[in-house]
Specification:
single chain; alpha+beta; Nuclear Transport Factor 2, Chain: A; four-stranded antiparallel beta sheet; 4 strands; 47% strand
Length: 93
């Protein structure tokens, strides 16, 4: 996993990942499985109101899985920053 991602996670003090375990579990999983080289993504929607926004991203084939990610963003000092992310792992077909 890239240093930028690790730094971002530490800065946000994330201590848990999708199953509620320590963040190290996500690092270990990524190290074992590698990058999602066949990932397809698209921005499904963006909604902006002043200095706040939401974005929905559809991800297909993230190591064989489909996700929907939703982000909340805040514009401060002229820059958009992600302040929250939630995701849904779609059931396998």
């Amino acid at each position: 996993m890239g240093r930028g991602i690790r730094r971002w996670l530490r800065l946000r003090r994330w201590r848990r990942w999708w199953s509620g375990g320590p963040i190290q579990g996500l690092y270990d999983w990524h190290d074992q499985n590698g990058a999602a080289s066949e990932l397809q993504s698209r921005i499904a929607s963006i909604d902006v109101e002043g200095t706040i926004a939401t974005a929905r991203v559809e991800l297909d084939n993230w190591t064989g899985h489909k996700f929907t990610d939703m982000f909340t963003l805040l514009k401060t000092d002229g820059q958009w920053q992600i302040v929250n992310k939630v995701f849904y792992l779609h059931p396998e077909a």
